[in-house]
Amino acid sequence: MSAWWPVAVACTAVVADALLGEPKRGHPLVAFGRWTRHAERALHADTRRRGVVAWLLAVLPAFTAVTLLTVVAGWLSSWVLAAVEVVVLYLALGLRSLGEHARPVALALEADDLDTARVAVGRMVSRDAAALDASQVAGAATESVLENGNDAVFGALFWFFLLGAPGAVLYRLANTLDAMWGYRTPRYLRFGWAAARIDDVLNWVPARLTALAYALVGRTRTAVRCWRMQAPAWKSPNAGPVMAAGAGALQVRLGGPAPYHGAWVERPCLGEGRAPDAAAITGALRLVRRATVLWLSVAGLAAACALLLGRA
Q1: Domain-by-domain residue ranges, the chain?
Q2: Which residues of 167-185 are buried (b: 16+ CB within 10 A; e: fewer)?
Q3: How confident is the model at residue 304 (pLDDT cuts 50, 70, 90)?
Q4: What span, in angstroms and rounded, lies between the C-alpha atoms of 26 and 306?
Q5: Phi, psi dihedrals of residue 180, rounded to the nearest 5°
Q6: How confident is the model at residue 5 (pLDDT cuts 50, 70, 90)?
Q7: Does the pLDDT at position 311 exceed 90?
Q8: Pairing between strand 258-260 and 253-255?
Q9: How far apart are CA 203 and CA 216, in angstroms?
Q10: Residue 172 in contact with residue 93, Cβ under 8 Å?
Q11: Considering Cα of 33, then 154, then 185, then 44, what sign does the dihedral take?
């Protein structure tokens, strides 16, 4: 198989996501969410062991099915395999969805409609949106775009390049389970431990490559400085580098206190420069798009080098 194969599949899937967006009906992740809720109801207990069993029960059927599908597709034809991989990776990506969620926040802020902006950002983040002022709404949306750039785009691309379509599925399902079970609440502190830790492991390398990409396509020196100095203080080992580098690349101040479940939680500051506003949200979207182009360009360059070395 040519070294260009995964690059061509990735580029096609990214274009498909840009043109089509996420399916409005029948998205496999919706069915996966229903399946995991059944697994949670059947297996939930305040133990890590039950959480591990539930994670395996949720992920392994879909991962196995996609693995078998790619094997059978490869037996049939390289074109069938390519089509399967494009569709699977397209479904794992969410680049257009980031804009569809974030732009309404920016537009509402530009129109000085804080109530609408709060409602829109409440669809993106878990904090109490009703307690946020305009700058905090912009900061919440900007943080979400930067962090989900890794979760919805670069993590899936990384594991696709490493393990093909099954790798993209494994990553996306693990990331979805972390979003459902990975909370430090009494219900999920032990049961969700496996979901949170597995997601941390799968994201460790992609998050740092994402941070590097943000730095390279933005204010590089500021991004690297913020990444080095601020990321270690963030509670998430992967979100810290991504958001610190992203905030530095945009030269905007993020982080700081945020309201969760009726109480304000102190968080470290990220980035430096101006306070977040509507322009910071649109800037974050541009940053993610430029980083996507960088990732695909580097992958293409690597494929070209592999071909040249193979002919040498």
Answers
A1: 4-311
A2: bbbbbbbbbbbbebbbbee
A3: confident
A4: 39
A5: -95, -40
A6: confident
A7: no
A8: unpaired
A9: 20
A10: no
A11: positive
